[in-house]
């Protein structure tokens, strides 16, 4: 199985290449990719340089152009595809049907991966996109159990890639407007979720209150660490009861199931976290490499990995059917 | 597609009733549609379960009776398919819908397209259509009507209508907005259950479970595996702009208020027999529990209400 590592910056890409990634994924510095955060991503020149570096070490570079084209500004997304192909990207990660059609038409030789943002959650859906646009690999949404991942992978006429570590979308990817409801900025249109520009923290007595747009997403008592106000991991009140209604502030850790995923025929394992630094990528890559060795023992580095996780707590998400 | 190309200011807007997103018990569901058939001034009625496959059997028995009554009353009927399809049982259910040819299907995701073999279909608001090239892809496959995602701003709607005139564009115009769908059932979990052991508990909340912030702000609502907005999206103030943009249909999403009266208000405003502000006032009498919003249409946070100013068209 290939190990696909995040690269938010040229430095992170360098690190991931040096640390043993089989491929890295990254995006341009604009709303054409789903991690459109300040200080992240690549200019055309940077991408050209880093692709040369990665290729010199036998590592592939996948370019995510995985938001949905804004009507009237399609050219921005089409140009991103043209440039990524021209600069030598090994694959494009796409979600928008119109952009998939454009790419298949203009660059039939360019390898196309289906982004998780396309929300293709079953074999018929993926088979249709393979037939229509020549998809070579689909990144699966985090809505499937391990058994469903295995069954789907057996059935589809392309490779599959799954997330194994990092941030967890509680909602199906590419079909969530929660952020947009609170802030006007959405993952699908602007490449952001719960954007920092709309985050505020305020003191209220002993409490620290985290807000997104006009809404309180959590209140933290004295001594409680204040987390980032992502809506699906916020604390709310329903029928007079307070709690994490959707999910606790946890992140995904499916590393215990690498063997199952391997046997299922999954082609690639994806690490989330283009916004994370070198230490994170290094530790996760090292741990996965270790576990993929024949006869590798249990999780000796569990604590190290957990400390790097959001809220320092992890879940197997939908891979474990009971999570639903 | 009647009226496309005619003077936009005179174009008639069709009214479509979207599928009931909540789990209503069999009697309530059937009686609702009977009344809609007999009394509501609507062009098209979309029925079927789009949120959770576990609910499908609840209305299976009444389905034929309901569709027949709607047809007899002169409504066009579409059958909606699930928005999130993972289990093989769900794939079969979607395929069955594709194979029947009595009614047009409204797709909730793309798995059904090969089975349709080029037959005409409609596209529901959970399919990601953000631009004209995407409309063109779907049109080539047989899409005739597309209800765009609720978060799309007017500026995008306009561009899409201009560049893809071959498809009738419909816009989400009334109701709590479907904002997200998950493999996890937050509704069942809130009641101490899980998706697999849910006992159809969401059926006890015909309007969803309100989710407020810890500071008491109305925010969202749980509807099984779906999350909907806490506000009710109301596009009455925007109807003239939607018409001018080239939109051909307005979608009303069923809530636990008098939907016959809601349709009447939208029809009156669409036909310029009632001005939008007066329409909104009447709507708050029909649905007093709801706070209204339309921010999405204006590229603003979806929960905001942007009222039409006197000098705007």
Provide a descriptive summary of the structure in words.
Chain A contains eleven helices and 15 strands. By secondary structure, chain A is of the alpha/beta class. In chain A, the strands form three sheets. An eight-stranded parallel barrel of chain A has the order 1-2-3-4-5-6-7-14, surrounded by six helices. The two termini of chain A are 27 Å apart. Chain B is of the alpha/beta class and 313 residues long. Chain B has a domain at 8-176 and 232-275: Aldolase class I (TIM Barrel, Alpha-Beta Barrel). The interface between A and B is large, with 71 and 74 residues.
Query: Which two chains share the most extensive interface?
Result: A-B, 71 and 74 residues
Q: What integer is the average pLDDT of chain B?
A: 95
Count of discrete alpha- or pi-helical segments spanning 4 or more residues of chain B: 10
Which class do the helix and strand fractions of chain A yield?
Answer: alpha/beta
Shape of chain B: globular
**Oligomeric state of the chains in view:** heterodimer
- The CATH architecture classification of the largest domain in chain A is Alpha-Beta Barrel
| Strand line-up in the sheet with most strands of chain B | 1-2-3-4-5-6-7-11
End-to-end Cα distance of chain B, whole Å, is 24 Å
Short description:
By secondary structure, chain A is an alpha/beta fold.
């Amino acid at each position: 199985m290939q190990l696909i590592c995040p690269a938010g910056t040229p430095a992170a890409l360098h690190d991931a290449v040096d640390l043993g990634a089989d491929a890295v994924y990254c995006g341009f510095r604009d709303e054409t990719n789903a991690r459109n955060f300040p200080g992240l991503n690549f200019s055309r020149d940077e991408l050209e340089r880093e692709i040369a570096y990665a290729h010199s070490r036998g590592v592939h570079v996948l370019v995510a152009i995985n938001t949905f084209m804004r009507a009237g500004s399609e050219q921005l997304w089409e140009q991103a595809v043209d440039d990524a192909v021209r600069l030598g990207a090994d694959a494009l990660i796409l979600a928008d049907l119109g952009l998939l059609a454009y790419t298949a038409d203009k660059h039939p030789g360019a390898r196309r991966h289906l982004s998780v943002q396309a929300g293709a959650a079953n074999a018929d859906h993926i088979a249709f996109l393979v037939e229509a646009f020549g998809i070579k690999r689909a990144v699966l949404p985090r809505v499937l159990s391990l058994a469903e991942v295995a069954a789907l992978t057996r059935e589809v006429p392309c490779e599959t890639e799954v997330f194994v570590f990092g941030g967890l979308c509680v909602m199906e990817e590419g079909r969530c407007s929660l952020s947009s409801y609170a802030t006007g900025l959405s993952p699908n249109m602007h490449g952001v979720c719960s954007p920092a520009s709309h985050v505020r923290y305020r003191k209220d007595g002993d409490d620290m209150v985290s807000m997104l747009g006009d809404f309180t997403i959590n209140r933290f008592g004295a001594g409680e660490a204040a987390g980032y106000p992502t809506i699906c991991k916020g604390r709310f009140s329903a029928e007079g009861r307070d709690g994490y209604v959707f999910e606790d502030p946890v992140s995904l850790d499916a590393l215990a199931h690498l063997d199952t995923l391997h046997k299922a025929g999954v082609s690639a394992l994806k690490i989330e976290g283009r916004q994370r630094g070198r230490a994170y990528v290094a530790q996760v890559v090292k741990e996965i490499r270790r576990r993929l060795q024949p006869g590798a023992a249990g999780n000796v580095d569990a604590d190290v990995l957990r400390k790097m996780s959001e809220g320092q707590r992890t879940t197997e998400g939908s891979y474990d059917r009971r999570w639903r | 597609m009647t009226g496309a190309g005619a003077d936009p200011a005179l174009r008639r807007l069709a009214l479509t009733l979207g599928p009931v997103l909540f789990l209503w018990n069999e009697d309530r569901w059937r009686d609702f549609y009977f009344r809609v058939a007999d009394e509501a001034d609507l062009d098209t009625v979309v029925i079927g379960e789009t949120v959770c496959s576990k609910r499908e059997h609840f209305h299976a028995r009444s389905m034929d009776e309901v569709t027949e009554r709607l047809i007899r009353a002169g409504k066009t009927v579409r059958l909606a398919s699930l928005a999130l399809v993972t289990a093989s049982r769900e794939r079969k259910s979607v395929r069955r819908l594709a194979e029947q040819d009595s009614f047009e299907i409204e797709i909730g995701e793309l798995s059904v397209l090969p089975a349709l073999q080029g037959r005409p279909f409609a596209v529901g608001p959970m399919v990601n259509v953000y631009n004209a090239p995407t409309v063109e892809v779907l049109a080539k496959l047989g899409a005739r009507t597309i209800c765009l995602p609720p978060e799309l701003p007017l500026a995008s709607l306009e561009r899409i209508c201009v560049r893809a005139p071959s498809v009738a564009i419909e816009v989400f115009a009334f109701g709590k907005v479907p904002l997200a769908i998950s493999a996890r059932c937050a509704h069942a979990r809130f009641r101490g259950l899980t998706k697999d052991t849910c006992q159809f508990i969401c059926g006890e909340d015909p309007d969803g479970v309100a989710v407020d912030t810890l500071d008491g702000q109305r925010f969202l609502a749980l509807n099984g595996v779906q999350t909907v907005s806490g506000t009710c999206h109301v596009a009455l103030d925007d109807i003239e702009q939607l018409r001018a943009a080239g939109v051909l249909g307005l979608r009303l999403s069923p809530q636990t208020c008098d939907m016959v009266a809601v349709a009447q208000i939208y029809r009156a405003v669409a036909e310029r027999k009632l001005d939008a502000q007066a329409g909104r006032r009447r709507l708050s009498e029909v649905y007093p529990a709801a706070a209204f919003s339309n921010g999405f249409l204006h590229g603003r946070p979806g929960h905001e209400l942007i009222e039409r100013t006197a000098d705007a068209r």
